[in-house]
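REQUEST FORM: STRUCTURE PREDICTION
Request ID: SP-0412
Submitted by: Lab K.M.
Chain count: 1
Length (residues): 504
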Amino acid sequence: MDPTAARERLVSLWREIEDLRSVSAVLEWDQETFMPELGQEARGRQLALLAGLAHERLTATELGEAIAAAAEAAADDPELAAMAREARRQHRRAAAVPAELARELAEATSAALAVWQEARRRSDFPRFRDALARVVELRRRQAAAIDPNRPAYEVLLDEYEPGATVASLEPVFRQLRERLAPLIQAVAASGVEIDESPARGRFPVPAQRAFGLEVAERLGFDFRAGRLDPAPHPFCTTFGRGDVRITWRWQEDDFRPALFGIMHEAGHGLYEQGLPAAWAGSPIGQAVSLGVHESQSRLWENLVGRSRAFWRWATPIFRRHFPDHPTFDPDRIWPALHTVRPSLIRVEADEATYNLHIAIRFDVERRLFAGELEVDDLPAAWNEGYEELLGIRPGNDAEGVLQDIHWAMGAFGYFPTYTLGNLICCQLFESAAAELGDLDQAFAAGDFAPLLGWLRSRVHEAGSRWSAAELVERVSGRPLAADAFLRHIRRIAEEAYGVVAEPA
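STATUS: Completed
RESULT:
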């Protein structure tokens, strides 16, 4: 078969799978935003049906033949070779899982989500225990079906970050624990109290939404191809090219959760909107990994949105939306955006402590799937991890083991991608600054196009043509490491607290 015909056949079959995934995403988005409480049972059935249909297509003999034909025809066509490689990876993984198990897992996670919401509201882990145990059991069976010769947790990691292994992640988390824990202790011992009053006050919700929308649009998010809606747990999802949804939540006495949450999700959205149109619906027309995806959200939220240069542009915009709030200058707001303080809630953690939250989750998940912990042990293991690494202990399940939605969704192995995203974003940002020159001058003028253009041409438009590790090395010129991230945290400690940390 000639390359053109092989490509058309593969993409035609793959587009059906992507369309089914998009329909599921619509229902999942609605489930998290506007679906009434009593719609849960029907929604679970609907999602299970769609999961089964997508699974059938992904495991079909016809698709396997199209992949083989594409691989054979791709000798002089790198794009087609990449499509065949990525399609084969997903096809083999799905083909190993019986359709009935896929349906069971979809039903179990949909049910667990509803139970988790109520358990978290009541701060009652025993209420969630049985639903979670069912999800864990099914994920173990799924991992064993995919590759019985690998540790279950490693098989699950590979779903979110292809190529990641426990052996590759453990040294990363060890280095972060060793470098961040003493820095956090030194900050606490410094006695410096950050003035957070510029970020606190009365911020009407409509004004917070309008401010966030204006910022997101200025960054480059195209609202002709997306929208913003409220959700209890902010996220970004895509229903296909031209429809990217972001969500947000707010506090009326602090503008930071809303603004930085919107910037974070807009960063995800910018990646989705920047994926190559020519590859839409193909196996390589998607983001390469969740770690790279997270790097895009963290870059815009933390490295752009918390910079002094950004606030030179944003401060007058802020005053227009919040005219009754006391005035401040960028140098005064900057420390309030870089507080370092151990906290119990991951999504409220600062940049210095955030990866320790992930280290705790990585350790608990790894031990759970290694058989070192049972589901009943999770609250205690969680609390002990917080006491050991952050010096604080949750007072109840809601601020402890029940705080995240991920386990209800069966997303074991997802958490490490957040830390990978933090590392990748700093490494990419250093490379962008080296190539583009004075980004601060551009940010201060409200010009984010140079950075977005750089990310578009080097990251977004690559789709999943290369692996995440290959992409990072191609763009930055070196393998992923923690040094750029640690330099960033070191600057925060020095400038905000006067703490001199060990050089990265």
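NOTES: The mean pLDDT is 96.
Reviewed by: T.R.
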